[in-house]
Amino acid sequence: MKQDALARWLKFIIIGVGICGLITYTVIMPRFGAYLVRHDTMLERNVMPWLILIWISAIPCYVVLFLGWKVAENIGADRSFSYDNAKYLKWTSYLAMGDSIFLFLANVIFLLLDMSAAAVMLVIGIIVFIGIAISICAAALSHLVIKAADIQEENELTV
After folding, report:
1. What is the 3-state secondary structure (H, E, C) of the chain?
2. Mind listing the pLDDT tens digit for each residue in 31-59?
3. Confidence (pTM)
4. CA triplet 11, 104, 90: central angle to 5 degrees?
């Protein structure tokens, strides 16, 4: 696949993920909260704090999408192995790890305040695991892009 086609596909996927996230955060989650309250009115006091937590945790996700867009632009401009891309991937790693830790700690606090349940902790654990996996993959990619950029720079100097 050519670089410009790859960049277009990456941007298409980023837009798709952004739209799916927007629908999830603004439509599905609030409706799910309303559904829970309809079936158990005791949960009413918990819905808004959970929605706020989820909305806060969305911020790093959208920053990562922005960084992914920058990487796609660099790929389209034939700068796949650049220090900028390595930096964007490193920031993606930091944001994914930070968001995972934030989500885990917030759920522990909600659990201690009797605003969560053990089953929710299991789901959060899976989400945190995925976030940490994304963080580690982004860090590894950042490292590889730096190595490739170094090799590319050496080759440009020797020619």
Report:
1. CCHHHHHHHHHHHHHHHHHHHHHHHHHHHHHHHHHHHHHCHHHHHHHHHHHHHHHHHHHHHHHHHHHHHHHHHHHHCCCCCCHHHHHHHHHHHHHHHHHHHHHHHHHHHHHHCCCCCHHHHHHHHHHHHHHHHHHHHHHHHHHHHHHHHHHHHHHHHHC
2. 998 998 888 877 888 899 999 999 999 99
3. 0.90
4. 40
